[in-house]
Design brief:
Blueprint lengths: L1 E8 L8 E8 L4 E5 L6 H8 L6 E6 L2 E2 L5 H7 E4 L12 H11 L4 H15 L14 H13 L5 E5 L7 H13 L3 E5 L3 H7 L2 E6 L2 E7 H4 L3 H6 L6 H4 L3
Parallel strand pairs: 3-8, 3-9, 6-7, 7-8
Antiparallel strand pairs: 1-2, 1-4, 4-5, 9-10
Helix pairs in contact: 3-4, 3-5, 5-6
């Protein structure tokens, strides 16, 4: 589904934020992209969305990241922003959800079916006609995920999806993420959430892959995490 081949990138020459980065993500995988601040997580997301361009090759569903492929690639990817206020810009949840399908030239009847199907799938039908400014933080985060799903992307990118949520809404968002069938790439400092949702983890350090493997193994490796300026998930550290 997604492949990075020897990708490097620098905001200011000659310091490279991403250094000869290579990995691949299969269709349907849920992968946690973790690392300390400055490790390169956000830059990987920007490269994948075509917001910045580096050296090397990036493939999305077989399409190489090039200017002529950018529009089609972006239709395959949905991005859930860390701050839902930057994503939900229409008056109601319904209007936000139907906006992108209509702009992708989907007929209104089909677009409305998509909206109802996604809300039903996530159990969020009660939010359909709610005004965005009246939603709680947790409701807005769930609505933001629903908005992306209405676009029917093949992969969903999420940036800190559980940040600033209370424990109840955090658990709801985690359950939603776990039930999604789409390919998911999640960047987060919430390692307990990554452990709960992801089967695989890619640990970045100084723009390189420091580790890549099963989440249950990497997130239990205290020595590896501490070497890369991270700590065990709280749920595991309590057992130490």
């Amino acid at each position: 589904m997604i492949e990075f081949q020897n990708v490097s990138f620098s905001y200011e020459h000659p310091h490279k934020v991403i250094r000869d980065l290579s990995f691949s993500i299969k269709d349907g995988e849920c992968v946690g992209l973790i690392g300390a601040n400055g490790a390169g997580k956000s830059t990987v997301m920007k490269l994948l969305l075509g917001l910045v361009r580096g050296e090397g090759k990036i493939l999305v569903d077989g399409l190489e990241m090039r200017k002529e492929n950018l529009a089609l690639i972006r239709r395959k990817l949905g991005f859930v922003l860390q701050n839902s206020d930057n994503q939900m810009f229409m008056p109601t949840v319904y209007e936000d959800m139907i906006f992108a399908p209509l702009n992708y030239m989907v007929g209104r009847e089909e677009a409305e079916k998509r909206v109802d199907a996604v809300l039903g799938r996530l159990g969020l039908g009660h939010l359909k006609h709610r005004h965005n400014h009246k939603l709680s933080g947790g409701e807005k985060r769930m609505a933001a995920i629903a908005t992306i799903l209405a676009m029917e992307p093949e992969a969903i990118l999420m940036d800190e999806p559980t940040s600033a949520l209370d424990p109840y809404n955090r658990r709801i968002v985690i359950n939603i993420i776990r039930e999604l069938a789409e390919t998911r790439i999640i960047t987060s400092h919430d390692l307990d959430m990554i452990l709960d949702t992801c089967t695989r983890v890619i640990l970045l350090s100084d723009g390189r892959v420091a580790a890549d493997g099963p989440a249950s193994e990497i997130l239990r490796d205290k020595e590896l995490l501490e070497k890369n300026h991270m700590e065990l998930p709280l749920s595991l550290s309590r057992r130490e």
